Fold:
Amino acid sequence: METTDLVLAILHHLLAFSLAGVIAAEFVLIRNELTPATLRRLARVDRHYGLLAVLIILVGIGRVFHGLKGWEFYVYNWVFWVKMAIFAAVGLLSIGPTIRFIAWNRQVVANSAFQVPAHELSAVRRNVWLEALLFLAIPAFAAAMARGYGL
Ligand code: HEM
Structure:
């Protein structure tokens, strides 16, 4: 149905932009000095990550099965699967930073003089940088897939 397709497409775009916002916020926050307030903010921003990712998966699956093109258009399209693989890679890369943000926040609550260890910070910076880079490729593959590339 056209209305279902439209509503799912709108939600899909809004969720994708929101997730881009979360990644961008983390990207900027970890580049600044990690004060107790910044560590709290990082943990708070990151909490939205999982929720948005789950919603994107649900709405994305909704688009595959209730979109106008039919599920066969996507499941036999390798560009679609590359897009899924990149999205999964971004999700896997986000696990390390999420664990760190929770741990750092817990430690700074217990001890306000807590300093983030340099090696942990550089690992988190590297992961978030890679997440941002890979995330940029997703709309490119999405646009190609929507136009029948990969069939
Ligand atoms: C499990 C995750 C996802 C699934 C199953 C999924 C599935 C889909 C489907 C079925 C379409 C419709 C394409 C068409 O019109 O034929 C679409 C479009 C699109 N997706 Fe996703 N998607 C997912 C995640 C994402 C993410 C994380 C982004 C982030 C940028 C994204 C960005 C887009 C964009 C920009 C379009 C519109 C492409 C266009 O019409 O040019 N998707 N997606």
